[in-house]
Structure formats: C-alpha cells, structure tokens
Amino acid sequence: xxxxxGFFLLFFGPIPEEVGWRGILxxxxxxxxxxKAQIYVMAIWLVxxxxxxxxxxxxxxxxxILSLEFLFFCINIILQSFIxxxxxxxxxxxxxxxxxxxxxxxxxxxxxxxxxxxxxxxIGLYGILLLSIILILHLSSTTKAVSPQVPHSRNx
Length: 156
Fold this sequence. Notes:
Elements: H1 2-11, H2 14-30, H3 34-49, H4 59-63, H5 68-90, H6 96-111, H7 116-146
C-alpha cells in the first residue's frame, strides 16, 4: 500500500501543482520580475491550501484554522514556495527540482509524526536552506562578475 500511496502522492500533488505554479505561473511572471513572481506565486499557493483547513479528514483540518499549527503551516508554505522558485531558476526553468522537493516534503510530512518542536525545526531548516541558496546564488553571480575572462589558447 505504501508504494501505491507514494505514487498517488506524486502524481496528484507535486506534478500537477508544480506544472501550474512554477512551470506556468511563475515562469510567466518571472519574465517581468523574479521577486514579484516569487511573492505572487507564494501568496496564491498559500491561499490554494486554505480550503483544506475546512475539509474534514485532511491533515490541515486536524491542525485547526488560526491555531499555532496553522501559523507554522503557513510559514512552511511560504518558505517552501520561495525554495521551489529558486530551484526552478537553478534548474534552468525545469520543473524537475521543484517537483522532487515538493514530493519529498509531502512524503516526509506523511511519514513523520509532527509536533510543535518538529514544526519549529522544519521552519529553521527551510529558512537555513533558503538563505543558503540565496547566498550561494549571490556569491556565484558576484564571482562571475569580477572573475577575469581567461582566453582559450589553441594548440595545433
């Protein structure tokens, strides 16, 4: 049953969501502004998840609307969305990396028992990952800007 559920989780969550969110919406918005694309997609993706807090039987319903767990969920969604936007750009606008990240977030979320402490840890880890990605991209762009171009010599 676990393999079937893992398959279901991939094909009815991360794949269609990331095709829509990063593959279409983010990609179109990014043509005008990366920052605006990140913010708009994050806000829409967050609102997209809100109805789940009112559907009996969902993980989100069990958290409760406007609870501390609701706040943690929203912060996690915000951080994950920004991470997936950067992964989309890092992967040369290929949705494979955001799909993979999204899938493992969902899969681990389903497999692990969550507590307040684990949610705080998740937020911290996502924050560190996001800051690391931003720092690495910033350092690589400044290094490229100041590194001299070495002419290629042709050996005959």
